[in-house]
């Protein structure tokens, strides 16, 4: 099978690339020549305080892959530990972010899908709402933050609101578009079969528009996951975004790298889940 | 028009249909009147643009005429209904459902509350009728054009409509497939006594299937130029019909109409 071999080649190349990147990382973070001779007298004490004694070779602040591996392992030993707001495990923080996203995103889907179904079936409604959507849609989720903080005043709810507002638009637009584009013939079949409103919706319109709706939901989830990190950096007392910022303030670059990696992996898992969902509702005409 | 041939009862009355898009626009067609008797197979022939499909949609209740009206069983047709089954030009099957599920959708609509086993049995019955019992778990995208159209026919028959409306059902099929399905349709109609109104632009198809042919003049402002009774007896067979006396007379008459007189008829009416 040529296709399978191509796939294998691709995977192999991915591993090679990963290895090359790690190697480059290692080379770039190699300790430079020890500046031990320079430090003398009263400076030696200072140097010792700063952890730059001749025993530890001077390094860039940036961790090498092996250092990162060590630190990450430490962090991942107890991902759910919770010793106060400033010292919570990375798993705990990731969970807090995911919970916020699921609530905000869930609310957005709960609003956008029914409204989109209506807009798709009532062109007048779609035309009336379209200017609002077009103005509101390009607003960065973070731009909502001051307004949200002033009106909602609760940081937790602000985060959820930001997720809600940024994932609303793609779901709404795609639902409305998908429903408006359901083929006339299928609706005619539903009419000649005298399907009632609910069965027409459930048996014809929703399955016909499902691929477009799920695409919108997938885009919405992607945006939500992008926005949550930034939102939590601003308001958070928890969450992966807050964790990144907190670790940056601690100058714990290893933890920052770990968090960034986890954000990427989580986003990928979410997207893969939606891609599977998309396949399951897809159909070939 | 000859509707009173030996105790046959009219099922559908079509009276003075006219359709315009916009008050000042010319009529697409006007003064369309005919009746369809119970158990009769009526074909409407005409060039594209004469509003045939619109007429069929009006009979189905999917569109409304500007003036005139349609009644069936003494009731005005104002909206689509299960008593008028439609076989659409494109098969109009739901691509996300299997063949069996497509037919089951119609069966459930016709018999609400029917239990699962009975639905399955009915579905199989109608799929067997069009020789598709082996394809029941396939999706429409996996079928050939002819098979899809047969599913469409099975779906329409499964609701046991009083009237079957077919909008150029075989237009997109190759000649061989078309012939096979035409024979199937003929056999099913003979067995069930189904009343059919079908649109076609294929003269041979019309002669084979129709008991009566409605010839449309060219649009715009199309009208019924002529209604022709098929003189060939009802047990027509595709493979031998062209040997039957009268076949070529009728065929020549229809072809002459389509190539010359349909245009003349529309000119004289202006």
UniProtKB/TrEMBL annotation, chain A:
PROSITE patterns: ABC_TM1
Domain ABC transmembrane type-1: 94-274
Membrane topology note: Multi-pass membrane protein
Subcellular locations according to the entry: Cell membrane
Regions crossing the membrane: 102-120, 132-153, 159-180, 201-217, 223-244, 256-277
PANTHER family membership: ALKANE SULFONATE ABC TRANSPORTER-RELATED, MEMBRANE SUBUNIT, NITRATE IMPORT PERMEASE PROTEIN NRTB
Protein name: Nitrate/sulfonate/bicarbonate ABC transporter permease
Lineage: Bacteria, Pseudomonadati, Pseudomonadota, Alphaproteobacteria, Acetobacterales
């Amino acid at each position: 099978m040529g296709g399978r071999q191509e796939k294998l080649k691709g995977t192999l190349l991915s591993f090679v690339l990963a290895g090359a990147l790690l190697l480059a990382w290692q080379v770039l973070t190699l300790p430079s020549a020890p500046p031990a001779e320079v430090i003398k007298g009263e400076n030696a004490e200072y140097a010792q305080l700063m952890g730059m004694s001749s025993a530890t070779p001077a390094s860039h602040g940036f961790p090498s892959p092996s250092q990162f591996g060590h630190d990450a392992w430490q962090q991942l030993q107890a991902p759910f530990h919770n010793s106060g707001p400033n010292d919570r495990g990375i798993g705990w923080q990731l969970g807090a972010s995911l919970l916020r996203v699921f609530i905000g995103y869930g609310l957005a889907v709960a609003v956008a899908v029914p409204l989109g179904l209506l807009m798709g079936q009532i062109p007048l409604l779609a035309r009336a709402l379209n200017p609002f959507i077009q103005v509101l849609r390009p607003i960065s989720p973070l731009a909502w933050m001051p307004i949200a903080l002033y009106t909602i005043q609760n940081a937790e709810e602000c985060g959820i609101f930001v997720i809600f507002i940024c994932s609303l638009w793609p779901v709404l637009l795609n639902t409305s578009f998908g429903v408006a584009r359901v083929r006339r013939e299928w609706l005619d079949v539903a009419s000649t079969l005298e399907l009632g409103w609910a069965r027409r919706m459930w048996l014809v319109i929703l399955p016909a528009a499902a691929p477009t709706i799920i695409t919108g939901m997938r885009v919405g989830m992607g945006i939500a996951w992008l926005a949550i990190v930034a939102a939590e950096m601003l308001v958070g007392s928890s969450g992966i975004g807050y964790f990144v910022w907190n670790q940056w303030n601690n100058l714990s670059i290893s933890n920052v790298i770990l968090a960034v990696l986890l954000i990427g992996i989580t986003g990928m898992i979410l997207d893969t889940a939606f891609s599977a969902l998309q396949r399951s509702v897809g159909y070939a005409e | 028009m000859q509707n009173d041939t030996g105790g046959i009862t009219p099922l559908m009355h079509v009276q003075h249909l006219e359709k315009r898009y916009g008050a000042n626009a010319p009529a697409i067609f006007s003064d369309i009147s005919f009746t369809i008797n119970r158990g009769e197979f009526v074909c409407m022939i005409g060039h594209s643009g004469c509003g045939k499909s619109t007429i069929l949609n009006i009979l189905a209740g999917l569109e409304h005429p500007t003036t005139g009206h349609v009644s069936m069983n003494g009731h005005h047709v104002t909206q689509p209904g299960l008593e008028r089954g439609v076989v659409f030009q494109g098969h109009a099957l739901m691509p996300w459902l299997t063949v069996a599920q497509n037919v089951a959708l119609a069966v459930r609509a016709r018999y609400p509350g029917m239990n699962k086993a009975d639905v399955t049995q009915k579905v199989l019955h109608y799929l067997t009728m069009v020789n598709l019992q082996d394809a029941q778990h396939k999706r429409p995208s996996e079928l050939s054009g002819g098979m899809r159209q047969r599913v469409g026919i099975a779906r329409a028959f499964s609701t046991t409509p009083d009237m079957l409306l077919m909008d150029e059902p075989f237009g997109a099929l190759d000649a061989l497939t078309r012939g096979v399905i035409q024979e199937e349709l003929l056999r099913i109609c003979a067995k069930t006594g189904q009343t059919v109104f079908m649109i076609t632009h294929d003269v041979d198809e019309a002669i084979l299937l129709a008991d009566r042919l409605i010839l449309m003049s060219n649009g715009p402002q199309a009208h019924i130029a002529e209604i022709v009774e098929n003189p060939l007896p009802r047990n027509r067979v595709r493979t031998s019909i062209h040997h039957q006396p009268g076949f070529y007379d009728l065929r020549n008459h229809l072809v002459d109409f389509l190539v010359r007189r349909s245009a003349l008829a529309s000119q004289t009416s202006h």
